[in-house]
Amino acid sequence: MTPALLRVSIQVEIENGKEEKMKRKHALQKWYIEPLDARTNEILARNQQFLSEEQILDGVWCSDGKSHRLWGCTDYAFVSRLIKSKAEMSAAFKVWHREGQGKIRPWDFPKKKGKRKEKSA
User: Fold this and answer.
1) Which of 12, 39, 110, 117 is 20 to 30 Å apart from 45, CA to CA?
2) For the chain, percent helix, then strand, then coil, each to nearest 5?
3) Could you give the domains of the chain?
């Protein structure tokens, strides 16, 4: 094997390893929605196909030391769609997240970076 081919082969193995690691990490993540009003509760009830087998966790203790009623979601994609349409649907909710067997923690979505103004000379 030539040195160039060997480098390409090693790079592919590294990239495949990173991809597998990300898949394993996402497989261990669980997402939850806490509806803050009746309307949001109805929205979640109408979207049963996006809820996990756990469905509703009633009275679960979270990292803030309080008991919450959470709806388990199948994946991040549903949570993301819900966030994007939050204003349009007039929904009020909090997003919670758990990695592996860790505590359920509140999830703060990253803020969108605004366009930077160019400095005038």
Assistant:
1) 110
2) 40, 30, 30
3) 29-106 (3.30.70)
- Distance CA(93)–CA(5), nearest Å, equals 52
| pTM of the complete model | 0.67
| Length in residues, the chain | 121
**Helix/strand/coil for 109:** coil
Chain segment 68-86, per-residue pLDDT in tens: 999 998 888 888 888 898 8
With beta carbons less than 8 A apart as the criterion, state whether 107 and 96 touch: yes
Residues 6+ apart with CB under 8 A from 67: 59, 60, 61
Q: Which of 38, 37, 43, 36 is nearest to 78 (CA)?
A: 43
Confidence category of residue 94, pLDDT binned at 50, 70, 90: very high
